[in-house]
Amino acid sequence: MIKNKKKIVFLLLLVLIFVTGCSSARISEKERAKRTGEITRFYRVWKGTPYRLGGTTKKGVDCSALVQNLYRDRFEKKLPRTTKKMAEEGEKVKDRSEWEVGDLVFFRIGWKKTRHVGVYLGNNRFLHASTSRGVIISTMDSYWVGHFWQVRKILE
């Protein structure tokens, strides 16, 4: 009888380890608030900065440079310079319920399927460098959903 109980406990522990090991780790509320604060402070400085292809400064910035600056300045994380290379970083997030503040959201736009990147803020919003309005926060409305490509988790 004791042998069977030990086997059952052992099997339950294996199942528990397997299930928790395979599930995606959600960040804590404290971490979510910290990330939101860092991104918000960054946005206050960059808000309205005009879009400029190839730009990397407050005089003009493109989407990948904006994200690169944010990650470098607020999260001490180095990212590649181009959206194409950023789209190969980190881990792809397949389920929308697993998106977290700070994840990178990628889109393909136009007939050439130009790549665009932003930073997810939660509540269906993301920070990015818009070609028409500069650095802004947008919602995942029908336009963006129609061009959605992928989300990648960069922060741990």
What is the mean predicted local confidence, pLDDT?
88
The N- and C-terminal alpha carbons lie at a distance of 44 Å
Model regions low in confidence, pLDDT < 50 over at least 5 residues: 8-24
The level-1 CATH class: Alpha Beta
**How many H/I helical runs?**
5
The count of DSSP E runs of length 2 or more, i.e. the number of strands, is: 8
Structural class: alpha+beta
CATH superfamily placement = endopeptidase domain like (from Nostoc punctiforme)
Level-2 CATH architecture: Alpha-Beta Complex
**Strand portion:** 25-35%
The biggest beta sheet reads: 6 strands, antiparallel
Provide the CATH topology.
endopeptidase fold (from Nostoc punctiforme)
- Along the chain, the helix and strand elements come as HHEEHHEEEEEHE
Structure report:
With 156 residues, the protein is α+β, with helices and mostly antiparallel strands. It has one domain: endopeptidase domain like (from Nostoc punctiforme) (endopeptidase fold (from Nostoc punctiforme), Alpha-Beta Complex), CATH 3.90.1720. It has five helices and eight strands; from the N terminus they run ααββααβββββαβ. It has helices at residues 2-22, 29-46, 63-75, 83-86, 142-147; strands at 56-57, 60-61, 91-93, 104-109, 114-122, 125-130, 134-139, 148-153. β6 (125-130) and β7 form a beta hairpin. Residues 8-24 have low confidence and may be disordered.
